[in-house]
Design brief:
This is RNA polymerase, sigma 28 subunit, SigD/FliA/WhiG. GO terms for molecular function: DNA binding; DNA-directed RNA polymerase activity; sigma factor activity. Keywords: DNA-binding, Sigma factor, Transcription, Transcription regulation. By secondary structure, the protein is mainly alpha-helical. The longest helix is centred in the middle third of the chain and has 28 residues. The N terminus is likely disordered.
Length: 261
């Protein structure tokens, strides 16, 4: 499988897509899959902290490759949609669905994660600043040690929850609808929604406190692990969890408010 996730030098242009859709040539299909398999590698690597304690990387790559193959079959090159965008949505969706099927997060952990998010959001609104561990623990009527334990346990749950939120909101607008329906009229709406959603996320990240912004950047863009982020910021891993949870809560509220509007 490692061979499949190495991006080759060959070029897949519009004529190659037309040839494949016209002939269904298996060799050309495999060439296309090989060329775009880097999308799977990128998706798996960018979500590694999310699944490292849940599933083997090889399993996620397999799921991603299957989704990529399906995307190749379903993609309509005549539509004004980039295959990379279309395939990325389907691959990430397949990975998230696979993690969902594992049923790995106990209900108690999910509840603790939600309660902690709510507490941080409420205290932030009240104090207009990042609440301390003591304040969050007092709000939840638990000890600081219990809070830090809960946050460590619920960290992966909050990451999955945020990925699910993004995926669920993108699913209804993904290019699959236009690629399969044959209607080009929907494309401007889809592109507009996708761009606006990205703008909402970018604007929210820009407004985050400096340390929260750093955590988001290092986790989602530089793919650093919790321990590595803690070392960079010179704080504990539990503090990184709190910063991440707080940032995700703000991003979630922004996305939900946008979708409702």
């Amino acid at each position: 499988m490692s061979r499949l996730i190495t991006k080759p030098e060959n070029i897949i242009d519009a004529s190659a897509w037309r040839d494949y859709k016209r002939t269904g040539d298996a060799a050309l299909r495999n060439q296309i899959i090989l060329h775009y398999s880097y999308i799977v590698k990128y998706a798996v690597m960018s979500m590694r902290n999310m699944f490292k304690s849940i599933a083997e990387q090889e399993d996620l790559i397999n799921e991603g490759i299957v989704a990529l193959m399906d995307a190749v079959e379903r993609f309509n090159p005549d539509k004004e949609v980039k295959f990379e965008t279309y395939a990325s949505i389907r691959v990430r969706g397949a990975i998230i669905d696979f993690i969902r099927r594992q049923d790995w997060v106990p209900r108690r952990v999910r509840k603790n994660a939600k309660d902690t998010e709510t507490a941080i959001a409420s205290l932030w609104a009240e104090y207009n600043r990042q609440p301390t561990d003591d304040e969050v623990a007092a709000y939840l009527n638990i000890t600081v040690d219990e809070l830090r334990t809960n946050m460590a346990q619920s960290y992966s749950a909050s990451v999955v929850s945020f990925e699910e939120l993004l995926q669920d909101n993108l699913t209804g607008f993904e290019p699959a609808a236009s690629a399969e329906s044959g209607s080009a009229d929907d494309l401007p709406e889809e592109a507009f929604f996708s761009k606006e959603l990205k703008d909402v996320i970018a604007q929210t990240i820009e407004k985050l406190p400096p340390k929260e912004k750093l955590v988001v950047a290092m986790y989602y863009y530089e793919n650093l692990k919790l321990k590595e982020i803690a070392q960079v910021l010179e704080v504990s891993e539990s503090r990184v969890c709190q910063l991440h949870t707080s940032a995700i809560a703000k991003l979630r509220r922004s996305i939900e408010a946008y979708v409702k509007d």
